Amino acid sequence: MTLKINYNQMKEKISNTFRELFGKDPLVAFAPGRINLIGEHTDYQEGFVFPAAVEQGIFVAIQKNNLKSCRLYSYDFEQEYSFDLDSLAPKKGHWANYVMGMLSQFHQAGYKPEGFDMVIGGDIPVGSGLSSSAALSVAIGTAISKLFDLSIPTKSLVFYAQKSEHLYAGVKCGIMDPYASAFGAKDHALILDCRSNTHQEVKVDFGDYSLLLVNSNVKHTLADSAYNKRREACEESIKILQQEYPEATTLRDIPSQDLAQIEVILPSVLFPKAKHVILETERVLMAADALHHQDLNHFGELLKQSHQSLSQDFEVSCPELDFLAESSWKMEGVLGSRMMGGGFGGCTINLIHRSQLTEFREKIKIAYVLKFGITPDFIPVSLSQGARMLN
Ligand code: GLA
What we know:
By secondary structure, the chain is an alpha+beta fold. The chain is built from 11 helices and 13 strands. The chain has a 6-stranded mixed β-sheet, with helices on both faces. Strands 10-11-9-12 form a 4-stranded antiparallel β-sheet.
C-alpha cells in the first residue's frame, strides 16, 4: 500500500471533529514529521545532522474552554482524556503525555496558559521513524502559544519538545526531530549543528532521482531502552577520552585521524560506538558537500556507509532493516539506502531513479514478504515547510 497525503482533508476532519465535540470553531496548528538524509545518533553528541521536514504531519485543533482543565480527543486512537492544569504528571505510555509534557515545560518557563479543548490527529504512521512524537509536541506547542498569545520563540518550543520527551516519554532524545519539525523549509534540508543549535538551509535537488521511504512495519520493543543505552555508552566513552582530550566535552570533539589511538584507550564494547559517532558526523558534512556539487553517487555511497556503521558498529539496526537496505543496494537505479532514525525498526530511506521506482517497489515488496511475512509500506516524501498555524 502507498500512503498518500491528504493534507486538506485531514485538516477538515480534525476541525469538524472539534466542532462536533466542543461546538466551537478551533484554531488549527500543523507540525510536520521529519526525514533525516544522514547523521544518525550524532545529535546528542553535539554533532551534525541533515534532516528535513516532510508533508505528512500532526494537526492540532484548539480553543479556550474557560476552565482550569484540558479536554483532549485523539482522532487516531478515538479516545478522550482530561486533566487538571495544576496536576500535571506523566501517565506511562499515554498519548496525552505529549500535551502534559509540553504544558509542564511552559509552566517551568513561566508561561501560564489556561484551560483548553484540543483534538489531535495526523497522517504520520506511528513507529515509522518519521518522528510523529516530535511533530506532535511541536504542533501542541505552536497551538498553545498562539491561542494564548504567548509568542514563544520557535527555538524555545524545540527545547521544550525535547525536554518533554525526556521527562514524559522517557526517551533521552537529541534535538534533531523537533528542530526539523519546527524549522523545516520547502525543498531544503537543514545542516543542523547540534552544538550551537543553529542551522543552514541546503537546497536539495535530486534531479531524476527521488526519495522513497520503505516502512519495515516493525518496531522492536527494546527501541527506547536501547536508545538510552547507546546515549549512555557515548557519554561513558567521552568521560574516558577526556583523560587524553581534556578539552573535549562530547564525541564531536574527537578527531577522526586519532581513531587508531582511541581504539587503544576505549574498552572494546565502547570503541565501535564512539567510532560511529565520530565518522557519522563527518559523513554529514561530506554529504552536504556532495549535494552541493550534485555528486549523487557519492551522496548515495555515504548513505550506504552510514547504514553499515549503524548496523555493525552502533548496533541499532535489525534484520528487517538490514535486509531492506542490503536488497536495495543491489537494485538498479538505487544510489543509496539506509536505515533512518533511532533504529530497531521504522523506515529505510532510499534514493532511486524515477524510472525504476515501480520496479523497485515490486521487487522489494516480494522479497520482504517472502523473507519476513510482513508487507512493507512505501512512503514518498518531499521536503516541506516547518510548523505553522493553518488559520
Ligand atoms: C531519534 C531521536 C533523535 C536522534 C535519532 C537518531 O529520532 O529522537 O534525537 O538521536 O533518533 O539519529
